[in-house]
Amino acid sequence: MSVDSDLVRELAEMLAETGLTEIEVEDGDRRIRVSRGGLPAAAPAQALYAAAPAVAPAPAAPAAPAAAGAAENVPAADNANTVKSPMVGTCYLAPEPSAGNFVAVGDSVKKGDTLLIVEAMKVMNPIVSPRDGTVQQLLVDNGDPVEFDQPLAVVS
């Protein structure tokens, strides 16, 4: 496969200009993905094998009633360990519809591991763990629209 280095450079410049972390283009059988931020290209595939097939409900905080769903547990928004969305878009918990989720509640993660993806303008932006720790809560469901600065997950 020959790589169009001019296209790769143009995509890299678009990343720098827009502040995005990843951009992908597809033309027939050829697909080119350019990303920045130190994530290895194989990270989603590695996380796929360790991921649980379903998101378990988050453990309830002491003296708090059980939440009906992970996305309804609002108190985590004030938690210092909350990972928030850097953009408006659509949240995806797995790299593709038929794949398992990147992470589940209770999973151990390392700094830089992909927690989920926020799609904005057809660009898949990985949302990574800011620290080593354990996924305490997932505050969104697959396919949810998300707003800028919306709490997505709690990692501590």
From TrEMBL:
<dbReference type="InterPro" id="IPR050709">
    <property type="entry name" value="Biotin_Carboxyl_Carrier/Decarb"/>
</dbReference>
<keyword id="KW-0276">Fatty acid metabolism</keyword>
<keyword id="KW-0275">Fatty acid biosynthesis</keyword>
<keyword id="KW-0444">Lipid biosynthesis</keyword>
<dbReference type="GO" id="GO:0009317">
    <property type="term" value="C:acetyl-CoA carboxylase complex"/>
</dbReference>
<dbReference type="GO" id="GO:0006633">
    <property type="term" value="P:fatty acid biosynthetic process"/>
</dbReference>
<dbReference type="InterPro" id="IPR011053">
    <property type="entry name" value="Single_hybrid_motif"/>
</dbReference>
<comment type="function">
    <text>This protein is a component of the acetyl coenzyme A carboxylase complex; first, biotin carboxylase catalyzes the carboxylation of the carrier protein and then the transcarboxylase transfers the carboxyl group to form malonyl-CoA.</text>
</comment>
<dbReference type="InterPro" id="IPR000089">
    <property type="entry name" value="Biotin_lipoyl"/>
</dbReference>
<dbReference type="InterPro" id="IPR001249">
    <property type="entry name" value="AcCoA_biotinCC"/>
</dbReference>
<keyword id="KW-0092">Biotin</keyword>
<protein>
    <recommendedName>
        <fullName>Biotin carboxyl carrier protein of acetyl-CoA carboxylase</fullName>
    </recommendedName>
</protein>
<comment type="pathway">
    <text>Lipid metabolism; fatty acid biosynthesis.</text>
</comment>
<dbReference type="Pfam" id="PF00364">
    <property type="entry name" value="Biotin_lipoyl"/>
</dbReference>
<feature type="domain" description="Lipoyl-binding">
    <location>
        <begin position="80"/>
        <end position="156"/>
    </location>
</feature>
<keyword id="KW-0443">Lipid metabolism</keyword>
<dbReference type="GO" id="GO:0003989">
    <property type="term" value="F:acetyl-CoA carboxylase activity"/>
</dbReference>
<dbReference type="InterPro" id="IPR001882">
    <property type="entry name" value="Biotin_BS"/>
</dbReference>
